[in-house]
Design goal:
Elements: H1 18-53, H2 58-71
Helix pairs in contact: 1-2
Length: 72
Amino acid sequence: MEIPDNSAKRVTAVQPTRALTFWPVVRVASGNFLEMYDFQVFGYYVAAIARTFFPSGGIVAGLAILADEKCR
């Protein structure tokens, strides 16, 4: 019985195509854009939100509570 010699077989890694690497980058960039947009809109309206929902505690207390809620 003869043992086959498998040392001649070469294993090569499959290189991903440009399309396979492009779309995940687009998805990540879109997610980052939406996250930054959300953060900027929240930062723009935070004083109005604090005055509306926490009128008696003052704006500083309202901002502290909103900042705590946003960071969770």
